[in-house]
Amino acid sequence: MRHGKKINHLGRKTAHRKAMLANMACSLIEHKRINTTVAKAKALKQFVEPLITKSKAENNLSTEKGTHNRRIVFKSLRDKNAITELFSVVSEKVGDRPGGYTRIIKLGNRLGDNADMAMIELVDFNGIYNADKPKKKTTRRSRRGSGAKTETPPVAVEAKTDSQTDAEVKADDSEE
User: Fold this and answer.
1) Which of 50, 112, 152, 176 has the highest Cβ tally under 10 A?
2) What does the angle CA 129 – CA 130 – CA 136 come to, to the nearest 5 degrees?
3) Where is 105: in which H helix or E strand?
C-alpha cells in the first residue's frame, strides 16, 4: 500500500532531488519551456507552482513583505537571476490567473531508453495556444435578484445584390 506517499522520489536521494528540481525550475523560468521526462515534469509542476504563487502575491508591493517572499523563494531556487525574472516578468504575466501556471504536453518516447518524454511550459508564455482565444471579460454575476433582462432581437437586414444597387444608383442619377 502507498498510503501517505505523495512525493515521487525519482530514484534519487533527497539532496540530489532538491537540487535537480531547483535547477529545472530555474531553467523553466528562464526559458519558459523545457523538455524532460513525464515523471520529472509532474514533480517539477508540484515544485514550481507554489513558488509562482508566492511571486504574484499582492503583498509583494510593500518592501518588507516582498523581501520575505523573495527570501522564501530563494531558499528553494538558489538563483538570483531566476528570482528576478520570476518576480518581474512571470508574476506580471500570470497576475490574473488563479492557478495552473504550467502545462505538460506529452511528446512520445525517447530513442535511447524508451522513456516517456514531455514538454513542460508556462501557460501564459505560449503564443500558439493563446493566440486564438481572446481575453475573457470578467463579470460578476449574482444569484440574488438577477431580474429578467429584456433584449431586443436583432433586426434582419435585406441583402442587396449588385444589380439592385446599380439600378438604384441609376434612378438617383436620373432624378437629379
Assistant:
1) 50
2) 135
3) strand 102-109
Q: How far apart are alpha carbons 11 and 46 in whole angstroms? A: 17
Quick one: 101 exposed, middle or buried, by C-beta within 10 A (0-12, 13-18, 19+)? buried
Residue type, 50: P
Please give the C-alpha separations between residue 89 and each of 86, 111, 124, 169, in angstroms, as whole numbers.
Answer: 6, 35, 11, 58
Residues 72 and 52: beta-carbon distance below 8 Å: no
Write the CA distances from 16 to 5, 9, 12, integer angstroms: 19, 10, 6
Q: What is the pTM of this model?
A: 0.72
Classify 149 as helix, strand or coil: coil
How does the average pLDDT of the chain come out, rounded? 84
Is 54 in a helix, a strand, or coil?
helix
How far is it, in rounded angstroms, from Cα 68 to Cα 54?
10
Identify the three-state secondary structure at position 20: helix
Q: Cα separations (Å) of 9 from 19, 42, 81, 105, 173?
A: 13, 12, 27, 22, 85
Residue with cell 500570470: 94
Spatial strand order in the sheet of 33-37:
33-37, 116-122, 102-109
